[in-house]
Amino acid sequence: MAVPRFWREIPNRYNLVGARCGNCNKILFPPRSICPFCRRMGKLEPYRLKRKGKVFSYTVVHVAAEGFEDQVPYVLAIIELEDGPSLTAQITDCNPDEVKIGDEVEMVFRRMGEESQDGVIYYGFKGRLIKP
Ligand SMILES: [Zn+2]
Predict the structure, then answer these.
(1) 82 and 110, same domain (yes or no)
(2) Is the N or the C terminus of the chain less surrounded, counting Cβ atoms within 10 Å?
(3) Does one domain contain both 78 and 115?
C-alpha cells in the first residue's frame, strides 16, 4: 500500500482533503489535476471535506487482503460524503451485521494495516457508524 507523494506532502494529513473545481464548483475526492465534470485544468484548489457521510453500498470481506488478516470479517463500504464525492473505506468499530445502506458515518483516522517490510504502519480514514 504505497502512499502517493501528494498525500505525504499535505501539511495536515489528519484532514480529509479533496479539491474544489474553481470552474464548476464540484468537490472532488481524491484530488486530481483535471476536473472530471468540466474537464478543465489548473483551477483545482485543496478543499477540506466534512467528515460525515452515508453508506451507499457495502460488502462484507471474509478473505483479507495482505496485512488485514487480523481484521476479517470486515465491512468495506462506498461512503457518499456530505460534500458530494464518494470514497471506499472500511467501516470500523462494528459487527458486519450492524451496517445498513443509508447509515450515517463519520470518517475517523485509524491504523490501516500491519507494519510493512520497512516497518511503517499505514494510517488512513475509516468510516465509523454514528449511532442514534
Ligand atoms: Zn469542474
Answers:
(1) yes
(2) C
(3) yes
Classify each residue of 77-100 as buried b or exposed e, where b means 16 or more C-beta atoms within 10 Å of its C-beta: bbbbbebebebebbbbebeeeebe
The Å distance, Cα 131 to ligand 1 centre, comes to 35
- Calculate how far, in angstroms, residue 16's C-alpha sits from the geometric centre of ligand 1: 20
**11: confidence class by pLDDT, cuts 50, 70, 90:** very low
Kindly give the distance from the C-alpha atom of residue 105 to the centroid of ligand 1, in angstroms, as a whole number. Answer: 27
Q: Give yes or no: residues 106 and 124 share one domain.
A: yes
48 CA distance to ligand 1 centroid (A)?
17
The mean per-residue pLDDT over the stretch 16-35 comes to 88
Ion ligand 1: protein residues whose beta carbon lies under 5 Å: 21, 23-24, 35, 37-38
- pLDDT of 12 higher than 70: no
Q: Alpha-carbon distance 132 to 128, whole Å?
A: 13
Q: Do residues 112 and 123 make contact, with C-beta atoms less than 8 angstroms apart?
A: yes
Which range marks the domain in which residue 66 is found?
52-129
| Confidence at 111, pLDDT banded by 50, 70, 90 | confident
- CATH code for the domain in which residue 111 is found: 2.40.50
